[in-house]
Amino acid sequence: MSETMNVSKGARIEGGIDAVVIGATADAFAAAAMIARSGLHVVLIETGDRPREKREFSPGYFAVDGDPLAYALDQQVIDALDLYRHGLSFIARRLETFVRFGDGAAMTLPGDPALAGEAVAAFSEADATRFADFLEEERKTARALSGWFSGGAAPLIPALREIGAASFDGAVIGRFADQRLEDYLRAEASIGAAHRSSEAFTYLALLRRLAGETAGLQGGVAAIDGGGRGLASALRRAAQAAGVSIRQTDRVRTVIVEWDRVAGVSFDDGGQIRAPVIVSALSARETFIDFVGKARLDIEFARLLDFPAPTIATVRAHLALNGPIGDALVGARLDRRFLLAPSAATLESAWRAAASGKASNGVVELVFPSALDRTLAPEGCLTAAMLLHPVAFGDPADEVWREGIENVAREAIRRVAPEMSAEIVAIDLDAPERAAPPMFEALERRRRITDASGLEGYFFCGPEASIGGGVSLSAGRRAGERALRYFKEGGTNP
Fold this sequence. Notes:
Layout: E1 13-14, E2 19-22, H1 26-36, E3 42-46, E4 55-58, E5 61-63, E6 69-70, H2 75-81, E7 90-92, E8 97-101, E9 106-109, H3 116-123, H4 128-149, H5 160-165, H6 168-172, H7 180-190, H8 204-211, E10 213-214, E11 217-218, E12 222-224, H9 227-241, E13 245-248, E14 252-258, E15 261-267, E16 272-274, E17 277-280, H10 284-290, H11 299-304, E18 312-321, H12 328-331, E19 337-341, H13 344-355, E20 363-367, H14 369-372, E21 382-392, H15 399-416, E22 424-429, E23 433-434, H16 439-451, E24 458-460, H17 474-488
Parallel strand pairs: 1-16, 2-3, 2-17, 3-13, 8-19, 17-24
Antiparallel strand pairs: 4-5, 6-12, 7-12, 8-9, 10-11, 14-15, 15-16, 18-21, 18-22, 18-23, 19-20, 20-21
Helix pairs in contact: 1-9, 1-17, 3-4, 4-8, 7-8
């Protein structure tokens, strides 16, 4: 049915627009720029607050919005939008990873995963060859799956179903003489996941981690200059250079649907922007239920959107330290990535605590942003940013929840740096992020959400379209490509 709009007297109806992109995420800007560079007139409606350059969470101590590390930035987007010319840069392209185990032992892995065998030899000589061989073989498998992870079709690999259904523990336990190597790999696979490593479908998380490519290195880790804000700024400049019109407002009321095609967006003052293509980078529920309504959606598709939100989450804590770290082993190189890899039993306890709404020690990923940018802390002092997982999803305004997380953060940094002499003078918490479902489930959900809404001209690159933690830009690229094909083919969804 055609929708009849009640337009307020004097409300503005704007035409001549080819595509509207809704959202303020990196994927929203990537999608908008990818569409606009082909000559289409694109309006990006930037919802929410713009990211700040940095925020002061204690006198003289600053935190930067967004993830300071990158694991899987889509090279096609970087090249197509010439993001390096627009300001994207890396402070460090191949970060070493310092691993602290539950028993206090430590291992340092090089920035290039291909060289991991040498580092493992210094830690467990008996495992050096088998660990290097295992990692190389899994990187090959991950490379074959990378297109699938980024939004393409599933590859024709005979063992795909078996790989997809495998648990991490089932695939890894017993491979190495030193079980702490299992703990390391489990920690890498567990960050951001909603399910234990003993459960089915969890091994793909490790392959997703190994599939990512940043700064030309598969499976590596890089530090972006300016963190998430630095990436956002480069994307904004690229979008503006491509001709995207950026408008900031939270007043979008609905997506206009006429018959089974989108026709624009309406605002709460009755105004409209008419456009045959809409791309949403908001959540699936906002995109389809709030903006369109269940009545206009296919029944099965609407049911798909009713999945329960995970109660497990990941939270980032920012710590202000009033002096040098003091721990000689950690302090020797602060410009590294630090990973706390607990034993399987300790991690299981953390899962149980999170499931019951409590906080306990689990996996920790730690960086010292002030070691990369000296403007973030007073002279001789440090800032630390740590990702804690798993934790119970909660509200930072809840004093009990917040106190529990802060206590875990205080203990975690001392587990990484047991000889730390600096005092923690302040802790600030980001809003927690709900954990991701198992990879196979997430991949299938993404396929159905991006393909089966039944609305012509409506495309999606929200959080459910991204697989794995961190920003990749692949969801925005895929949505932009699909929108372009739809527009150029005269209005037929690909």
